[in-house]
Amino acid sequence: MRRAAIGRLALIAAVGFASEAGAVAVEAANASGAFGLYPAPSFRLVTGGCKDCATLRQALWYFRAETIAVPKPGLPVASFAPGVSAFDDIRAWAATRSPGAAIDYPPLVWVESPQVVRGARLSADGTRLEIGSAGLAVKPEPKIPLNRSYYNAASIAYLQDRALTVRGTLDGGELTMRTVWPEAFALGGTAPQTHALPAASSPGLALRALMRDSPRGGAQGEFVARTLWQRDAAASDWSGKPVLALMVNGAQGDDDEAHAGHFAIVTGRVAPDGRLGDWLVNNYYSLDVESEKGIIAAPLPLDNYLADLNSGQNWYRPTYMVVLVLRDARAADLVQSALNRVYNQFYRHQLVYYHPSDNCASISVDTLRALGWPIPARGASNRLLAWISFPVVAIKERSLGKAKVAFDYLYTDPTRLLPAVALEEAFDSILTLVRGELPEGSGPLARMIAEDVAAIAYVRVPQFPSNRAFGDAPAVSVAEYKSRVPDDPALAQIVPVPPRPFPEALRDPDLLEHEWRPSDYATLVWGVLSIVGIPVLLWRAWVWRKRRRSNH
Q: What sign has the CA pseudo-torsion 276, 277, 279, 283?
């Protein structure tokens, strides 16, 4: 949609295109390196219009105008069980999977761009990539019209004099840059310096303090990578080790629907130089709207996820990661394989995104719990307030839909609603597990984490300067979220986005009806009270008034 020539360019990349353009090497996105735990050359580059891909037709529909990587024939691709919910599918699948089973490949990886340049620097005017004396003409990907801010002179100044990985589309000797990622943002091939957690009553609160130890949650700070815990202090060489990471993107500075941040699960391996860009981020985002930034839910390389000029999270807010460096890949393999199954159910709409209870945090946490990692829950945010406020919101807003959404927000466990809370509880649990304490309900994933974690690292990526307002650390409660939103709804900064209806022709016959949400029961209860209760109250008031008159 955004590039008319993408089919031709992806086809060139798919047959192994590599070029020397102005003596700067431009390589196909799958020619070398990795997509997380997978060798990039084990994929081929296509668009969603592919006619011979094993990928679900529903998934291909979402990426019909995008460059994607699909597994080559003969590789084990994740499947799904029809006629069951997404997480019942995961539980049943995990129960029969052997601990050392080979990793399943994802239905697709959203690589976004068919070409990549590594180790280049941006010229002072932002019009060329340079490696030594060689150069390549470049221009930025056009801004999506609904996107409220974009790459500008401040961005060029920030990126200058940094070694960059740039993903884009080469046409006529000029590269259209879609992703620009600083390669120095790296974990390190050897363990970074160990830092003690801030003093706090729990590890989760200590992590919160760490995320907030700089103004605006470090949005305008430096890149940070540090070791928080290591099983064997002498084992400092992390090169090649698998990783399983939990990522939270912070609050946006000028979007009042985005103060809670975003949650994602990351897998990959530590590169010899510690670069993070090839790790695979598993992002869940509503498929039923057209994002103003062009975001589509998918597994995608970390540099794309954080630094795409339109959709990259770090153009809008800071990012935080808790990284588990593993002695064995089995936990990362298990999680990534499970997430691949969830994507299949997500694309075909067996699992439907619903912001209060089926969102980026809940889908991720529910997957981890289904695999046997009992991340503690905190209980509903405020059930009493949910019930009391339901009729108030319905009357005030003249909308039953808004009342139901508000009810579900208050009824949802914060570990499934607020990304920062999910990360805090997961971090608490990780430290419990590495001490060898297995809580009740621990299954295969919890045992793998307990046995295999070699070290725990913390990474913070600052926001990239642009004409966007700087973000902040994510809200950790519904109350804090509301405190950041203007009291006057007219002053709230919200970007309306158009719907993207799921075509009926893509709806499989085995799809289950969605289970009732808490707000559906609230609607029933308040409906009954309105029909039965109010007339009864009026009758009792009439009787009381009649008796009172007769007594006088």
A: positive
- Widest pairwise Cα distance in the chain: 104
Report the range of poorest mean pLDDT among 3-7, 89-93, 224-228, 398-402: 3-7
The burial class, CB within 10 Å (0-12 / 13-18 / 19+), for 437 is exposed
Amino acid at 391: P
| 163 Cβ contact partners less than 8 Å away, ≥ 6 residues apart | 119, 120, 121, 182, 183, 184
Query: Does pLDDT of 135 surpass 90?
Result: yes
Which DSSP symbol is given to 531? I
Over residues 48-57, mean pLDDT: 95
Structural tokens at position 465: 């300067």
The residue among 367, 243, 350, 353 whose CA lies nearest residue 296 is 353
The DSSP string of 15-82 is TT-EEEETTEEEEETTSSSEETTEEGGGEEEEETT-SS--S-HHHHHHTTTSEEEEEPTTS-B----T
Which pair of structure tokens corresponds to residue 472? 């902040």
Asked if pLDDT for residue 541 goes beyond 80, the answer is: no
CA dihedral (250, 252, 255, 259) in degrees, to 10, reads 30
What residues have CB less than 8 Å from 454, skipping those under 6 apart?
Answer: 230, 231, 232, 235, 238, 241, 325, 326, 327
Give the 3-state secondary structure of residue 271: coil
CA 127 → CA 373, 399, 519, distances in Å? Answer: 48, 51, 53
CA atoms within 13 A on the CB side of 296: 21
Q: Are 343 and 104 in contact (CB under 8 A)?
A: no
- Give kind and range of the element (H or E) at residue 385: helix 383-397
Amino acid at 441: G
Q: What is the DSSP string of 439-489?
A: -TT--HHHHHHHHHEEEEEEEEEPPPPSSSPP-BPPP-SHHHHHHTS-SSG
Q: What is the pLDDT of residues 442-453, one digit of tens each?
A: 999 999 999 999
Nearest-angstrom CA–CA distance, 279 and 269: 7
The rounded distance, in Å, linking the Cα atoms of 58 and 107 is: 11
φ/ψ (deg, to 5) at 115: -125, 160
State the pLDDT at residue 522. 81
Each as own residue / partner, the long-range contacts of residues 89-93 (CB below 8 Å, 24 or more positions apart, any chain) are: 89/341, 89/345, 90/338, 90/341, 90/342, 90/367, 90/370, 90/371, 91/370, 93/338, 93/341
Q: Give the angle 97-451-268 at the CA atoms, nearest 5°.
A: 70
Q: What angle do CA 495, 498, 500 make, to 5 degrees?
A: 135
The length of the chain, given as a count of residues: 552
Q: Give 497: exposed, middle or buried? Use CB within 10 Å, 0-12, 13-18, 19+.
A: middle
Backbone dihedral angles phi then psi of residue 114, each to the nearest 5 degrees: -80, -20
**Which amino acid makes up residue 144?**
I
